[in-house]
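Hi support team,

I submitted a single chain yesterday and got back a structure, but I'm not sure I'm reading the token output correctly. Could someone confirm the output below corresponds to the sequence I sent? I've pasted both exactly as they appear in my results page.

Thanks,
R.
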Amino acid sequence: MSNRMLHMISPGRYDDVAAIVGDVEALLKLRNALDDAILTGTGGTFLFQSDGEGYSFAIVRVEDMYPVHTTYAGEINPVRSGRETVSLRGVPNFLQALCKAALLSALPIPRFLEPKQST
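Hi R., thanks for writing in. Yes, this is the structure output for that exact sequence:
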């Protein structure tokens, strides 16, 4: 039986599928974190993958998503329009959302998840 198990896939290419699949407890935790982000600007929860590895799930409400971008796989030099200037980890309050998620676990925030300082 699963306990707070949630898997996500994002679209890899145009017209691809995105999905969130989880047990009831995980979906409730996700809903609570989403409600928190809608109300306060940040939300977070701590969930698990099927192999038992836990992960922090940070949620940030951003008023203007126009400048926000994702990173392409294997990207060395940015390949995007000039408007896309803020990375996901660089959005305001990302660290606060990540801290909310990490507070729900006994594990420290993994170093690779720390947001890069935007200039």
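A quick pointer for reading it: The radius of gyration is 15 Å. Let us know if anything else looks off.

Best,
Support desk
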